[in-house]
Amino acid sequence: MLDSQDDFVQLKATQILTVLLSSESSPIQSQYLLPFLNTLSAFVTHPLPHKRDIAVQCLETVLPRSEVRRAVWENATLVGGLVDILKHNPGPQMCYQIGFCFWLLTFEQEVAEQLNKKFDIIPLLTDVAKAAVKEKVVRVIVATFRNMVSKAPSDNLPAMLVAQLLPFVKNLSTRKWTDEDIVEDVQYLRDELNARFESLTTYDEYSSELLSGHLSWTPVHESELFWKENATKLNDKDYDQLKTLVGLLKESNDPVVLAVAAHDIGQYVKHYERGKKYAS
Fold first, then answer.
1. I need a labelling partner for 62 at 20 to 30 A (CA). Which of 12, 107, 186, 249 fits?
2. Where in the numbering of this chain does the ATPase V1 complex subunit H C-terminal domain appear (predicted)?
């Protein structure tokens, strides 16, 4: 019935199966779970809004199960579909529901470690939270960030600092909230981000920004002293950071990122006499 050409039958079958799977007392076997998730993948990327709505509703219901979370994480189309919906400015309820899905997903260690690396989710969720008019949207995103920090701090704190999450959570900490959980989560994030920020050197800040791929005209890029002291550090680990800069020049479509990357490579060549050989 999941393969039915009749939309009504297919949608109802999906909803019924969602109820059955969510209430199953034993782990769900992959022979039942994978076809179900493939159907949700097709729904979540479908141009019709009601199919996307059904997909997200069904995911919310089954993601409390660990085996489902792991299987969803293996389905890049499904996770990418959720990200894509968020990028198109959905309404508050959809923002909350997708945020809830990501919150559940980040209870898995691998997801907490890899979610931002694969889907650049931190700046996106930060923007959604900043624009949110509903407390529950902010609450679920802050809770998601807490999961990511508590389970994988080194994977996520640098990107959060680059996304300017610290000033945002400082602002959140001054607001009045009806939910005590959000107060605790905001405080946790503020403390963790503050500690990380205070321990950073200038080059750590640069490295975090470079790792995130979101280069912008922060003061470090235009500091002659910074480049004089640090240009050769791009050579470390087999020129890893230099390769990252070159990769951004080749792959990014963002004019600011391209301009900053080109500038940084120019500074590298200027302050490292053999730089032209390695940057070409």
1. 186
2. 200-278
